[in-house]
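If you are new to this repository, start here. Below is one unmodified record pulled from the training split, so you can see the exact layout before writing a loader.
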Amino acid sequence: MAVDVLNVQAQSQELPEYAVKAAFIYKFTKFVDWPAQAFADPKEPFSICVLGKDPFGNVLDQIFSGKTVNGREPVVKRSNSVEELKRCHILFISSSEKKRLARIIEVIKFAGILTIGDMDQFAESGGIIGLNEQDKKINIEINVDAVKRSDLKISSKLLIIGKTVSDGTAR
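And here is the target side for that same chain:
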């Protein structure tokens, strides 16, 4: 099922882990709608941000290069400060930020940001999408409570291929 919807699962056997995860992040843009207030103006670029130690290298830049996301030019940003990234539309939270995860989630939980991470228990800890590798496959976990808080709309096609979890804190 994952191969049909996202068309990157089959590649995971041949590509490095973070190339596959970067492809997933790009594909997620096709299955998520951001609220109008997530953009300051119609020309604002679509921001894909990495918080903490960047495991992607230039792979994210390459995946988004020459593409548009919802009619907007994508821009990849990196930072160690969550405050700098409040205008992101997608925020990948690196495993280097595990000790700060609760605070990061608290700061941005109502900001309309799609949070993605690959650390253990990411979705259960308040992140929206967890990407976990197991047996050379990337498994997707989606926190339905975090989705509700974010005001993002996630397609049922994405919800079907992911395992839904809850952190018990829906608003």
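Two things worth knowing about this chain: Residues 58 and 76 are 10 Å apart (CA to CA). The longest helix spans residues 17-28.
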